[in-house]
Write a structure and sequence with these properties.
It is built from 14 helices and ten strands. The chain has an eight-stranded parallel β-sheet. Strand 3 and strand 4 form a beta hairpin. Helix content is 43%, strand content 14%. It is an alpha/beta fold.
Length: 329
Amino acid sequence: MTGEPPPRPLLLPIVFALGAKVENVPLHAFLNNPTKIVSASRQMRNHLQTDGVACYFDAFLEAEALGAILRRVSDDEPPIVEWEPEARAGELPPGLRSAEEAVNKGRIPVAAEVVRRMNAVPNREFLLMAGVTGPVKLAGLLTQSEKRESARCEDLPGEALEFASSVTTQVATTFLEAGADAIFLHEQVPAGVTAKSCEEWSSLLAPAINLARFYEALPVLQPAGASTAMENWELIARQEWGCVVCLPDSVALSRFSAGSGAAPPIPQSIALPPEIFRTDSPGKEEGISSIREAMRKTKPPVVMTAGDVPFSTDLKYLKRVLIEISRSY
């Protein structure tokens, strides 16, 4: 991913779980079947005509590979994460697999196989995207602190953060070696960020970001926790990340677009909020209009989504929204 910037933003929405509906299979079965995932990915890309394909996106992929048990309630809800033997809150679970072992366990081999098969598509004209959980978010899952959006890095054990960083890097390596063109780092923004703690946080992400750059792939930092991100945005924006940073959500988008229109201090992508893909969402037309205006002002290198589009999304309506967004180019 070197050379001159593209004449328009890359359109890289994360459309993954929706493939289960395309293939008419339960989500849990879809997540374990590379043949179904590849088939759905190709169909959805042919329909949407985006610049990238989401080969695999699951925020619980790494935790499961490390030994967690995922209890799925429904396709529309995130799974419940359990550990056996039961782990104490604030501590790493006993018996965790190493980062090197984890990439061969759970569904990580399935995800890598999807990337390999998509990479073998003849005359491919789209990027292959894969999601990796960032160190702070993963450490929160491992220590059962992920529900505390306001948690600081200091609240997480250093051992957990370092271990999570090694897992993030190892999983990114697996996807890059399989042929991924873009690595999306889905990360939790710590609360109360200072210049020092922001630098320390950046150092946890740096190995995966540098690795993606070594493979000439596109690294994208995708911060979760909108309110926390906006509270600490000035410090985050001044950090040398070495990657594209995603504006957190529609709140962040509105705040930035209301500014002077000056060039941002870091390359920023625009994240399309999930609500604009719901046909029954009030104010969705106004939301699309504000996003188009923000795109004209900020000229982002990448336009993506704030996460995987909702499982209930209608594929035809999704295409309509993306076409509307594309008219901002």
